[in-house]
Design brief:
mainly alpha; 2 domains; 0% strand; globular
Length: 341
């Protein structure tokens, strides 16, 4: 996310180049199909002028055409490495390569091999690729459960062992604190007109599912209700697109947000089930993603922290809460509209 939001133009170009090289398996196959479309989407996101403050959009056309942009893969990697001098940018570029490899609906060993080769060429070793391969193959369920458990422990006061035990029992909702749950329901039910709590009630009514803490809710109030507050504050609905844009907003706002973005991109972009909700495959708009990141980065408080007191804000006017957190205008659901678009 840091490279997408703050990286220099040459690093952004290298990011797109790494994705292109993975999609074509080091230039051994045509640049076409879903993986090529993914690369083009991210190229638009990385180079968007209005999203990143550039006077003009960055031109990556030579990386997005049918012809190979380099005489051979080694020359391509030399150009890429020269533009990725920062370790963090190299790591993010490898993440992008792995994302392309995993985007295929069937196993793509050629792309995975290319991502492994890119990681070694960038001096990153083999651990990350090996971990992702493990996730994608024999130990996928265990690895996905581990990711989900880690995310919940970062965003709630519960220890990983507590979460693991309740995951095994398929009863994460029982972690909810009963006193907090009753307080949350009362605040939402009786919130003043125009308040954050009143809009939360509208959120649950239009979304067609019960508020966290009620029968059938799959996750603890401490996580799910706080997450729903993020939806309302950011102005993103409950569609797969809304889930991703909210997660991007969180990731730009907080170090703890990046873990949830990982879950959401796998669940609601890749269409691979990660948690308790049905997965979906959403085609995302680069400008909307970049705008969500920009908005999240401007907040003056970490709203993903378990210590953030969102309950105390439910009776306050929604506009006032947004202003106090420095949330820029945006989102695609306005107060009073249907949140389940």
């Amino acid at each position: 996310m840091a490279l997408l939001t703050f990286g220099p133009p040459e690093a952004r170009r290298a990011y797109v180049a790494v994705m292109r090289m993975t999609a074509t398996a080091q230039g051994t196959r045509a640049f076409e199909g879903p993986q090529a479309e993914l690369v083009k989407m991210f190229a638009g996101l990385v180079g968007c002028s209005g999203c990143h403050g550039f006077e003009n959009s960055l031109n990556f056309s030579e990386l997005l055409g049918p012809h190979e942009p380099w005489p051979d893969a080694n020359q391509g990697m030399a150009d890429i490495a020269a533009n990725l001098t920062d370790l963090r940018n190299r790591q993010e570029a490898l993440h992008a390569a792995l994302m392309v490899a995993l985007y295929s609906r069937v196993s793509d060993p050629q792309a995975t091999t290319t991502a492994r080769w890119i990681g070694k060429k960038l001096g990153l070793g083999d651990d990350l690729v090996a971990m992702v391969e493990k996730v994608a193959h024999d130990n996928a369920a265990q690895a996905k459960g581990d990711i989900f458990r880690r995310v919940l422990s970062q965003r709630t006061p519960f220890e990983q062992q507590q979460i693991a035990e309740q995951m095994a029992n398929h009863d994460l909702a029982s972690l909810s604190d009963s006193v907090m749950t009753k307080q949350f329901h009362a605040l939402v039910e009786h919130a003043p007109v125009g308040s954050l709590g009143a809009e939360m009630k509208s959120f649950y009514d239009s979304a067609g599912f019960e508020a966290p803490g009620k029968e059938g809710s799959p996750l603890p109030v401490e996580f799910l209700a706080a997450h729903d507050v993020h939806h309302v504050l950011a102005g993103y609905g409950t569609s797969p697109h809304g889930e991703v844009y909210t997660a991007v907003f969180n990731a730009a706002n907080s170090p703890d947000g990046i873990g949830w973005l990982t879950v959401v991109l796998i669940q609601w972009h890749q269409g691979i089930k990660m948690g308790v909700f049905p997965p979906a495959h959403a085609h995302l708009e680069p400008e909307a993603m970049a705008q969500a990141a920009k908005r999240g980065a401007e907040l003056n408080e970490d709203i993903c922290s378990p210590s953030w007191d969102w309950l105390s804000l439910l009776n306050q006017p929604l506009d006032q809460v947004r202003q106090s957190l420095k949330i820029p205008p945006g989102g695609y659901v306005k107060a009073g509209e249907n949140w389940h678009q």
